[in-house]
């Protein structure tokens, strides 16, 4: 589940891209563009468990993520955006470092009544989609029959007038 997404610059490979912070997996995914993200064409990712966020004092828009003996350098558009990213990253890192007893894990395991409610809703949507497909198929068949009928009439009309 994405907590935050948007443009950032990553200095490691010098790329301006689209980044998605996924709290469920504890990963910062990056793509070369938002369009590539929508297509699922990921460029890479940064695992956030045990990561450390660093703030660059030289520039009010840069920050680092240190994890697994690597340092990733990022640049936001401005100080406010850097603040949003670093806070969101810190939340996800804290949740990842808590382990399986975190409130995040509990959020992904709804109780049985909530599950049954969502299952019923999903079934209703599925039935609606099935009905729409049947109607579209029926309409397509009718249009095809009308088209064939009109073609026959045109053909017969041409024969009669020849």
TrEMBL record:
Residues 137-162 are annotated as: Disordered. GO terms for cellular component: cytosol; Golgi apparatus; membrane. SMART domains: PH. The keyword Transport applies. Residues 137-154 have a biased composition (Basic and acidic residues). InterPro entries: Oxysterol-bd (IPR000648), PH-like_dom_sf (IPR011993), PH_domain (IPR001849). Transmembrane segments: none annotated. Keywords: Lipid transport, Lipid-binding, Transport. GO terms for biological process: lipid transport. One of its GO terms (molecular function) is sterol binding. Residues 1-94 form the PH domain. This is Oxysterol-binding protein-related protein 9. It comes from Hypsibius exemplaris.
């Amino acid at each position: 589940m994405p907590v935050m997404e948007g443009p950032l610059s990553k200095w490691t490979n010098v790329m301006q891209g689209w980044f998605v912070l996924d709290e469920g997996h504890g990963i910062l995914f990056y793509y070369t563009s938002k369009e590539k993200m929508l297509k699922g064409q990921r460029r890479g990712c940064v695992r956030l468990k045990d990561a450390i966020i660093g703030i660059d004092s030289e520039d009010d828009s840069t920050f680092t993520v240190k994890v697994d003996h690597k340092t990733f350098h990022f640049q936001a558009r401005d100080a406010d955006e850097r603040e949003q990213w670093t806070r969101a990253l810190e939340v996800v890192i804290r949740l990842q470092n808590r382990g399986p007893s975190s409130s995040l894990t509990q959020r992904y395991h709804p109780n049985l009544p909530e599950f049954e409610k969502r299952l019923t809703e999903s079934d209703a949507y599925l039935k609606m989609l099935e009905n729409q497909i049947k109607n579209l198929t029926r309409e397509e068949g009718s249009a095809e029959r009308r088209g064939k009928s009109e073609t026959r009439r045109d053909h017969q009309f041409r024969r009669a007038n020849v």
